[in-house]
Design brief:
Layout: H1 5-15, E1 20-23, E2 28-30, H2 31-47, E3 55-58, H3 63-75, E4 79-82, H4 89-99, E5 103-105, E6 125-130, E7 140-144, H5 145-159, E8 167-170, H6 177-189, E9 193-196, H7 202-212, E10 216-219, H8 221-229, E11 243-246, H9 253-263, E12 267-268, E13 270-273, E14 277-281, E15 296-297, E16 302-306, E17 319-324, E18 331-332, H10 336-342, E19 343-344, E20 347-356, E21 362-367, E22 371-374, E23 377-380, H11 381-389, E24 394-404, E25 408-417, H12 425-433, E26 444-447, H13 461-464
Parallel strand pairs: 1-9, 3-4, 3-5, 8-9, 8-10, 10-11, 11-12, 25-26
Antiparallel strand pairs: 1-2, 6-7, 7-18, 13-14, 14-15, 16-17, 17-20, 19-20, 20-21, 22-23, 24-25
Amino acid sequence: MTGNIASLFDEAAARFSDRTVLIGDQESFTWRELDLKAGAVAASLKSAGVKPGQRIAICLDDPLDTIVGVFGGLKAGGVITPFNVRLREDERDQILSQLNPAFVLDSIAEGVEGLSAENVDAEDPAIILFTSGSTGIPKGAVLSHRSVTVGLDMWCHSSLAIEADDVVLSVLPLAHSYGLFGTVMAPLLKGASSVVLPRFGVEEVLAAIEKSDATIFCGVATMFRRILDNGEVNRDALSTLRFATSGAAPCPWELAEEWRESTGVKIVRGYGMSELFRPVCYSPEDTLETPQSIGHAAKGVSLRIVGDDGNSLDGNQTGELWIKSDSCMTEYLDRPEETAAVMQEGWFKTGDLATISPEGLVSIVGRKKEVILRGGYTVAAGEVETVLNSHPDVSEAAVVSVPDRDLGEEICAFAVLRTEATCTEQTIIEFCKSHMASYKYPRIVNFVPDLPKGATGKVDKARLKTWKHCRNKIGTGKIDLCG
């Protein structure tokens, strides 16, 4: 039996052949039409001399074309990498130089052709996804056919509980795990429909939900916030939604609660990455949920909290979160040392500091590499961000360290205020001071119009650290930034 993940999509195409499963701005495809178009792409790749196991860069502007290209490349037995259309040319070239593809797919072959998936081994690479590169050069996470199969099962069952009659709204980059697997591949595998928008816009998303009778909206925290800030939300227009999901970046509990109060729709939170899919999450039917936690282990996933000495800690103690799952990547492309640094006997070292409650709920308190060493104390940036984001006037916040002659490092916060907010920097400092230990609260707070973010929606802290900050200048309002 073939190990190719595309064989599962062949089965879905046969089972749901006449169902419209892919809906775009200008056209829609039934599963049969999508399968035949992907077959034509696979045939054209083979005619061009592409052999199973060779790398294929998917560089297409239209999201529906990208999906056809992804399925076609997998059918041909290729190792595919979808590219984000919003990358600058130098960013694209940087990834291409690492990938060294045998073929760059920048157009879709005309016509349709039935073609079964090539026979490959389950442990062979299937997809290479590149990290956002917020702290350096992007790394390619190599995912085998087996890991993709397991990861999609996570999305179908643990994360989304997808039914064949679901309609999933996709407005996320298809070059990243959440968009590709959560909003397209998993729904199509179950015979559900995926409504694909080329990019996010408040009016466009609300119109698409209403027009398509969408049942699941997959978004990121910024999207939920912008929809709420846009004005009065029409609850009737969102009445078809069973739930929404968040990913790519943390979704504060306060935002999830405000969204549910305004829309009547629950946000199902979770935690994932290119290397592991979505191994920690809430399920739509979960009744036990706490503000600070981001879910529990998905089916088949094992979790550990590990101290600096490499020994396991009690779940209530803070340590690095290690995850073991068959969905885990095989390696970082051509980076054996970096692979070895995060992999140990089947465990993936996430680099995130976390705790696990007796009920199995995971709370992320910061990044291991984002700790701030202030006057002999270790402070997790994520812990300070959680407090900042709980302030009613703060829409979004990020914390970094800045050099300090006396303390070594000082805690520097950048905050985006809600519209019509009137608080000052000192107000924010006093708020944090009242909610955390004296060595943890930020002494420097800057108000900014937006936080710099990468393609996945994560805050680009490397760039943030290059911005000028305003030290102890209280009550000056928003400041101009450079960087």
